[in-house]
Design goal:
Blueprint lengths: L2 E10 L2 E7 L4 E6 L5 H9 L24 E9 L2 E10 L2 E9 L2 E3 L10 E4 L11 H15 L3 H19 L7 H35 L8 E6 L6 H7 L1 H7 L10 E6 L4 E2 L5 H23 L4 E4 L8 H14 L3 E5 L12 E6 L2 E4 H6 L2
Parallel strand pairs: 3-13, 3-14, 8-12, 12-13
Antiparallel strand pairs: 1-2, 1-4, 4-5, 5-6, 6-7, 9-10, 10-11, 14-15
Helix pairs in contact: 2-4, 3-4, 4-5, 4-7, 7-8
The structure holds adenosine-5'-triphosphate (ATP) and magnesium ion.
Magnesium ion binds next to helix 1.
Length: about 375
């Protein structure tokens, strides 16, 4: 696990060609609305498997006035030395993701072996009142940082499930042997998915339980959803039911992450906006501590507009915790004052589609 020391974007959203250097530790990016701060975090978020922090189509990231393809490249400082990773698309295949690791073509899944990333964005402020799917995606991101094969398993499970639903929706009765094969795939991937999620939820619950009631509300964390035991047999029995519903009604794709504010015994969805944000931060910090324990290095955190909804005491506590854990955290905000007590290792300013180290941006004012 690693820190990003250089980052270059080309034709990525509003950034035609941008390049920056960052130190390990807190990286603060400030700039006015629309300057391209979230886009930088999104570019970093594409350096791990998945669709990044906006969950957007790959082609959406191509700069509108650009040639059609885009790329993001980073230098990672790792225990084993420097590693170059990069990803992007070409104009001729705007929906196909290309990945290079140390100059060689690689699969998107293999990015997870180099980099563990977790993000918090303003859209996630509603995570606890959002759909279970949004919470599952958040949980799976946490799991992926600890179990790099988790993402591929979820994809294979989803593919088998989609194919089964397609067959069940057909006009002619589906081949039962083919269906049974898909159900067996769902059961075996499903068991691995549930095991990995349960491992992370249990470990996080343990971390959170051991923490003091500090400025970040202590969360109680549970995984809900059915046990994947006998899933193949239960799916086989439920074919008519699932055909009528148009989707599988059992399986780990129905799991949910249940979070409660421990001190108040209050479900997270009923907590205030700031309390919900504090619960999310507590989970992400517990996760960073867990990844550190298991892998010897914390994940990189992308904290988009993290200071919004946090009072000064919680902001300072957050920056102090990040510094104590030695996390490389990329934090954005429109207002540099929000990071006044933070003492960032790197402070970048975005203006006129250019990135300046903070001091230079000041001089140019
Ligand atoms: N594919 C694209 N091509 C060109 N520009 C784009 C593309 N996608 C988004 N943009 C533009 O990029 C700009 C910067 O967006 P971004 O979300 O990074 O801003 P921000 O600095 O995070 O602003 P805020 O403080 O409002 O969150 C926006 O004006 C947006 O319209
Ligand atoms: Mg933004």
């Amino acid at each position: 696990m690693a820190a990003i020391t250089r980052l270059s974007l080309s034709d990525f959203r509003n950034h035609a060609a941008a390049s920056l250097a960052a130190a390990p530790g807190l990286v603060v990016i400030t700039g006015e609305n629309g300057a391209g701060k979230t886009n930088i975090l999104e570019a970093i978020s594409l350096l791990v498997p998945g669709r990044g922090l906006r969950g957007a189509a790959l082609s959406d990231a191509a700069r509108h006035a650009g040639p059609g393809g885009w790329s993001v490249a980073a230098t990672l400082a790792t225990a084993a030395g420097e590693v170059q990773i990069g990803t992007g698309t070409q104009a001729s295949a705007p929906d196909r993701r290309l990945v290079r690791i140390n100059g060689a073509n690689a699969s998107a899944a293999s990015l997870g072996e180099w980099l563990a990333l977790v993000w918090l964005t303003p859209a996630m402020d509603r995570l606890f009142s959002d759909s279970a799917g949004a919470r599952r995606r958040f949980l799976d991101r946490l799991v992926l940082a600890l179990h790099p094969s988790h993402g591929a398993r979820v994809n294979r499970y989803d593919a088998a499930m989609r194919e089964r639903s397609r067959l069940l929706a057909g006009d002619t009765p589906a081949d039962p042997v083919w269906l049974a094969g898909l159900e067996a795939d769902m059961a075996s991937h499903g068991a691995a998915i549930t095991d990995a999620r349960a491992d992370v939820v249990m470990a996080l619950a343990g971390q959170a339980a051991a923490a003091q009631d500090g400025p970040f509300a202590r969360p109680l964390i549970k995984l809900s959803g059915d046990d994947p035991e006998d899933l193949a047999a239960r799916l086989a029995k439920g074919r008519a039911r699932d055909a009528a519903a148009g989707r599988a009604l059992e399986g780990p794709h129905r799991a949910d992450l249940i979070v409660t504010h421990a001190a108040k015994a209050m479900p997270a969805a009923h907590c205030s906006t700031g309390e919900q944000k504090a619960l999310l931060i507590a989970i992400v910090l517990a996760h960073a501590a867990l990844v550190s324990q298991r892998h010897g290095r914390p994940p990189i955190l992308l904290l988009d507009e993290i200071a919004a909804h946090l009072d000064a005491e919680r902001r300072e506590a957050l920056f102090a915790r990040l510094a104590a854990m030695g996390v490389q955290a990329w934090a954005t905000g429109t207002d540099a004052d929000l990071f006044a007590g933070a003492n960032p290792a790197t402070h970048l300013c975005l203006a006129d589609s250019q990135i300046f180290p903070r001091a230079r941006a000041h001089e140019s004012l």
